[in-house]
Every structure is written in C-alpha cells, then in structure tokens.
Queue: 3 jobs
Job 1
Amino acid sequence: MPDKASVESSPAKAGLRILVVDDEADIRESLEYLLLQEGYLVETAPDATEGLRKIESGRYDLVLLDLMMPDRSGLDVLRDVRRKDRETPIFVITAY
C-alpha cells in the first residue's frame, strides 16, 4: 500500500478528508487504499469507539461507517454524531 505522501491528488479532491470506520482490517485497508488512489486524505478507525473519538475531534467531508462492529452498532454511532453534527455526510456500510 502506498504511503499517503506518495499518492498524487487531483485538484478537485485535494484536501477532502474521509474517515473509514470498520472493524474488518481487510475492508478498512482496502477502502483506504482505493480512496488514497483517488486523491483523498484518509484516516481510519478500527472500531466504533475510536471512530466516534475521531469524528468528535476532527472535521471530515465524508464518513464511511460500518453497521456491525463488536463494541457498538454503526447506527448508535450515527445517532450520537447527529446530535452534534447534522452536516457531515455519513454512509453506513455493511458486508452483511
């Protein structure tokens, strides 16, 4: 996987930040790789707790949020985020 500094970003995507929250390492890393290849700035979180911490402390242009995680449901995280932030787009994803 290329490091973030080595990926060229297109001007239209430069600076757009995406957070991927998924407990499945293969899915999380695959999404990160694909999004980096498209020129996005990508951060990841391996569980709902870490994802929620990152969402509360940062600003993202999009959040990809797994529905089923061992520590919390993605829908629970979505509800918590929406109480404070109604603007950030959040896509709930699942392998089920």
Note: The beta strands are 17-21, 41-45, 62-66, 90-93.
Job 2
Amino acid sequence: MLRETKAKLLSGFTAALVAVLAALFSLLSNPGTSDAQDKAKRAAAPADPRVEAGRRAYERLGCGVCHSVAGAGSPGSPLDGVGARHDAAVLKAWIVGAEPARASLPASIARLKARYASEPDLDALVAYLQALPGEARRRR
C-alpha cells in the first residue's frame, strides 16, 4: 500500500472515531433530555390559560438557552421556585433588564433583554414564572 493511501485511511478512521466519541460524550453528558423537557412541562401544569401562554412564550423566546426549568435548559440559571422568591414587578424587571436588575446584568445581556419590553406575552411569562414549583428561598 502506498503511504498516501495509508494516510487517507488513517485520517478517515480518526475522523470516524472522533465523531463516535463526541456522540457518546453527548449522550453521557445529557441523559434524558427529552425526559427533562417533559418534566419541565409537567412541573408547571397550568390551570390558568395565562400560565400556559407564558410557558409557550418561554419556549418561543428561547429562555432555555440561559435558564432551566425542572432540569430542562441551561443549568446555570435555574428558574424553579423563582415566583416564591420574587414578586411580579421584580420578575418583569429581570425579564426586560430594567432597574434594579440592570445593575446586576452585563451590559450586553441588559441590551438583549430590553427587546422583551414590547413582548405581548410578557405578563403571561411572568405568570408562568410565578407558577413554577421549586424550593422557596428568601424573598428579595
């Protein structure tokens, strides 16, 4: 066999091995993602249509990129029980990046959140967050 052919075979094998290992790592790092999403939907089983509209807004706006509910989404900023810790005005301030929340946010995030101020389902999103079950911590 020529060196060039051996090199091509070795590079193909290496690429396939890397792809398999990446897929395996992804599966092991994110077990049951669909179960977590189902759990998140059940966690805030809305009796109120506004809460359901807020859940849909949470999904539509992509809030799960930065936050999680019942383990679904980004684990860095879980929102479980956030309604027990903050009143509606504080939640709205955090959603739109207004004062007093703005002081705690990086400028780029505050600018990003500012676009939600005109969101028609903003009040529904607040209702959804208030309905989320979770550990109640001290109120701010």
Note: Residues 33-131 form one domain.
Job 3
Amino acid sequence: MDWKIELIHVPVSDVDRAKDFYVNKLGFHADHDQRVSEDLRFVQLTPPGSACSIAFGEGLGGTLEPGTLDVIQVVIPDADAVLAELHAKGVEAEGVDEQAWGRFITLKDPDGNRWTLQQLPVWSTGAADQ
C-alpha cells in the first residue's frame, strides 16, 4: 500500500503576502485560493515538479505560530543554479553548504518559516551503480 504526503500546512500571518512570495518569488503553482466564507479562506500551492503541496489561509486552525515551521526539506536538481535564481528574484537565501549527504540552501519566507533545499549527492541517485 502506497502512502503519499499530499499537503503540508504552513503557518502564515498574511495570506496575500505569503501567496505572493511563494508564487512570484519561489515559482510555486497556485492551485486553489477559495474564500469559503467570511471567516474561512483556503490557499493551496504546489512547488514545480512536486506531488506534495502546501496550504495556508484564514480560519484553518492549527497550533503553530507563523514563523515557527522549520521542518520542510525540498530536493532540488542544482543548488548553485537555484541559489542564483533565488538571489536574482530578491530572495534572501544562504548556501551552498557542502555536506557528504548533499548540498544545501536555506531560506525563510516572509514570516520566518525556514525551508531547506537539498541537492542530493550523485551516489544517492543510483549513479554509483552504473
């Protein structure tokens, strides 16, 4: 039986600012932005090439305060290219941190939620077996 992570909630203080950052700075696709009622708004965005989306909004509940999320790690193909693209778009990002298990970039969204981007080492993709 397959288990697939589909949606991760990201705590934000300003929905429009967060949507602008993720769509216009990071290039996420805007899947949904629905105002269900005066007290409920649901926004779902998907990183390019990802099967898992993020969500935030108004009235969704949750226990995390905006800016406290520090657990999302995303695999990227080329850390140098991604870092250059982020800097060109005005995104403050740190890296490239070279480790035996990958090359890493870190960035924060406007609320301070921290993301880690990892370029996998060649050996992890099966290239060592070829």
Note: The longest strand covers residues 29-37.
